[in-house]
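Researcher: We're teaching a course module on how sequence relates to structure. For the next exercise, students receive a sequence and then see the predicted structure as tokens, so they can try to spot secondary structure elements on their own. Here is the exercise chain.
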Amino acid sequence: MSAPFDDLSRLADLDLALVALERSRGGLPARRALAELSERFAELERARALLEPERAPLAASLTALEEEVARLSERKAQIEARLDAATGAGRELEAMSGEVRHLAERLDALEDQELELMEALEPIDERLTGLRAEAAPMLPARDRLVAEMAAEEEALDAGLAAQRLERDELASRLEPSLLQRYERIAAREGGAGAARLEHGSCSGCHLAVSAAEADRLRHLAPEEVSTCEQCERILIRPDQLGG
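Model: And here is the predicted structure for the students to work with:
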């Protein structure tokens, strides 16, 4: 009478292995590495997003200053060229000389402001450059990990498929009412619907059976189906298994 219970025990082992394999999907090495990389990439993006609004007005001000410096420098150069080409003296030459001096003073002030803005931008730009440098290799690394994860999942799915085929073959050998009872318990427990009685304890819930229950189980006929009094799984006794 051992064969049905041997098959039932193997079915329970397979169902537990299938559950473990399915749970391992979330812990695949490439999946864990991809999650860590994605988390770090997101941190870098958040840091960049905080720096960009700080940099934007400074950069805009610097651009505006540079444009003004270029405009005034061109104006100063034009006047200086006219002065160089002029001869004699007069109010117009005096006015042009005064404008050149004024432009020079204005350019000095603007260049000082440019320097201040560049000094303010420098640490921000250095930080942004560092963030981009760290993030750049993450994109090809992510693609590599996605490919590795696909390969790991393919191998996992192949293992699952092979074990499911074996499970289906074992299930087909069980008496229908016993299989239905097993499947109902397995669905409720989220794993196996049967467990072995090992050293006085149920291998499913790992609780010891009472002395009275142990004595009762010893006197059951080998073909009689018993149940764990704690978890209600089908309890497979040692005398029901083959050697």
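Model: If you want an answer key for the exercise: The helical segments are 2-24, 29-85, 91-135, 138-173, 176-189, 211-218. The first helix runs from residue 2 to 24.
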